[in-house]
Amino acid sequence: MSQYLLINRIKVQGANAIAGFTWGFPAITHFLGFTHNLSRKLQNNSGISDIRLSGCAVIAHQHQVHTYGYNQFIQSKNPAYQFGEDSKNKVGSPPIIEEGKMNMTVSLLVSCDGNIGNREETFKQWIYSSCHRQRLAGGTILEIGGVELFTIDDGQNKNNLRMLARKLLPGFVLQNRSSYLENHFEELQQQNQEAELFDAWLDYIALKQKARPASDQINHHLIQQTELHPEDESYQQLFTVWQKHKESPYDQQTVPDELKIYFQSLPDNGANKQLLEQWRGYCDPNGKTDADWEYIPKPKQGFLVPIMVGYKAISQVYNNDGVANTRDSETDVCFVEAVHSIGEWQGVHRLRDEKALKQSLWQYDYQKHWYLCKQVIDSKPVENDENIYHENPNDFS
After folding, report:
1. pLDDT score for 86
2. Which of 124, 185, 246, 366 maximizes the CB count within 10 A of its CB?
3. For residues 61 and 12, what is the distance between their CA atoms, to the nearest angstrom?
4. At 386, is the pLDDT very low, low, confident or very high (cuts 50, 70, 90)?
5. 50 vs 35: CA distance, rounded Å
6. 46: three-class secondary structure by DSSP
7. CA-CA distance, 201 to 309, in Å (whole number)?
8. DSSP string for 365-397
């Protein structure tokens, strides 16, 4: 049996949309930091100081990145304007709209430990008021839909889980898919020992296209033959082979032998002239060959996105007085770089049991210079995670 705190429908204005060298949604560290700050404030509240918050799931309902045109961040100083009563000689420009921002509506599902008992209303009211006094992902919290507590147990409280899922609809929960990146990297290395982790990461985040020589006449011919000879299964099999071949990105070396034999058997006359010319161009394309551009699918299916999942230390820990411009005058300082991985947005209807709910909770994990946000399903030791995460050498903090 587990207790969960639902902070539902948090409307945030001006949140950070850039994380490392990814953009579009705040880093998971923002949400865990928000939860961690609430937990620390709880310890200073004498009435509910025994309650602990640990880990949270992030559910997105709506987002709007401040961009225009083709994904360009809004940033403008025009037009110039005049200000003040005597403004003839006082011409200035409006301030730059800070770029890399977004509006969003999210819900946080936080694991809650401690016997709340008859303090539930006091606790929920404290959470509600405290959240409004904090920032989330650098943005201002405008509104919170509500704060509720749920007790989830597969044996006796399945109705609570269904009720919780309904309150989160429509919404998408962010899941860690670093294992996808690890497996794909291993596959790339089997094909090419010089493949790098960055190549595997790009296969998941980049929109890639590959040219396929024009094949409209080939496709039309094979369909026509299956219609003209419905009793002959060889034409149907030939068309099936052609369809299966087109499912993979074009490779001149993988053109099926069955198709080569068939088109070589066709009479080279006027009726088949254009068809055979296109077939020869398909098997042996050159710079003048007409082509169709096709998207290359990602290694795995799903709503997969690049995410920033923490930091890796790149220096020793320094005393605070040895580093200038630190946030405070007491905390020791360590230089770090951003760590990136792969995440997946899944519909909240996938949270069918308590196990799935627990696995969606992000937790802090620190070992040997790695400062990461992980989920319960990630049981792999961090010291071996160099094959899972990608680092950004240009992002220091």
Report:
1. 55
2. 185
3. 12
4. very low
5. 16
6. coil
7. 14
8. EEETTEEEEEETT--S-GGGGGGT-EEEEEEE-
